[in-house]
UniProtKB/TrEMBL annotation:
Residues 9-64 form the HTH deoR-type domain. Transmembrane segments: none annotated. Keywords: DNA-binding, Repressor, Transcription, Transcription regulation. This is DeoR family transcriptional regulator.
């Protein structure tokens, strides 16, 4: 392979990474046409990038990967006003008198702070930060037990799974690390995905709250197909194409005010 070919390879992959950062996904056929190379060439680029953890390959192209390096405390300090707006919108989807499971996540901490205090709710969670916020508001709270994973800020091990077996939530507000029409809802770790799948299997209705950086993004581990999601609360300025794709999958879309 010549030096020029190596340079072109690097340039192509830099361009692909930029497109992934901008829109969350790339289509192999479109890139091939734009760059004047074969689809096989683009597919080879995507395979190499996926092997390096730079993207996740899906049929016809690739998705941006999530980054799981931040801790719960770090995530709670990011985009507080946006998460509060999402939480206020999501709180309106929780009927009085229901049993709710709030999956661990920084946006669900904001939701715990936004739930009404006199609605007769019973809320279970695997996140201590969520439980603390609920108790401050005198909301009936069930805390699942076990070792707390520092990165996810949640109990996701065997003890938490056993505790969850006693629950049949009316509503699960599922934390998402990525959501995409093809990949569905995804998580950053195997254990986290396993716990989320189990709680979803025991819940009547699944709601997701999605910040813009999670749209059209895939984490490494599958949680649920979009068909399992009833409603998605998205940011006021979320892309129209992304919102339409979720709606086409049968999800009710609510934009935060």
């Amino acid at each position: 392979m010549s030096g020029q070919d190596l340079l072109l390879l690097g340039e192509r992959q830099d361009l692909i990474r930029a497109r992934l950062d901008l829109s969350g996904r790339v289509i192999a056929a479109e890139l091939a046409q734009e760059l004047g190379v074969s689809e096989d060439t683009i597919r080879r680029d995507l395979r190499e990038m996926a092997a390096s953890g730079l993207c996740r390959r899906v049929y016809g192209g690739a998705l941006r990967m999530t980054h799981a390096s931040t801790t719960m405390n770090e995530r709670m300090a990011i985009a507080g006003a946006r998460k509060a707006a999402l939480a206020r919108a999501a709180a309106g989807l929780i009927p009085a008198g229901t049993t709710v499971f709030l999956d661990a996540g920084s946006t669900n901490v904001a939701l715990a702070r936004a739930l009404p205090t006199a609605a007769g709710l019973t809320v279970a969670t695997n996140g201590p930060a969520i439980a603390a916020a609920l108790l401050e508001r005198d909301i009936a709270t069930i805390q699942l037990g076990g070792l707390i994973d520092a990165r996810s800020g949640a109990a996701i091990g065997a003890k938490a799974m056993r505790d969850a077996e006693a629950l049949r939530p009316d509503i699960l507000v599922l934390g998402v690390c990525g959501i995409d029409p093809e990949a569905g809802v995804t998580a950053d770790s195997f254990e986290e995905a396993e716990f989320k799948r189990f709680v979803a299997s025991r819940s009547r209705t699944v709601i997701v709250i999605v910040t813009n950086d999670k749209l059209f993004t895939a984490a490494p581990y599958s949680v649920a197909p979009l068909a399992r999601v009833a409603s998605a609360v998205i940011e006021a300025d979320a892309g129209e194409a992304e919102a339409a794709a979720l709606a086409d999958a049968g999800i009710d879309i609510l934009r935060a005010g």
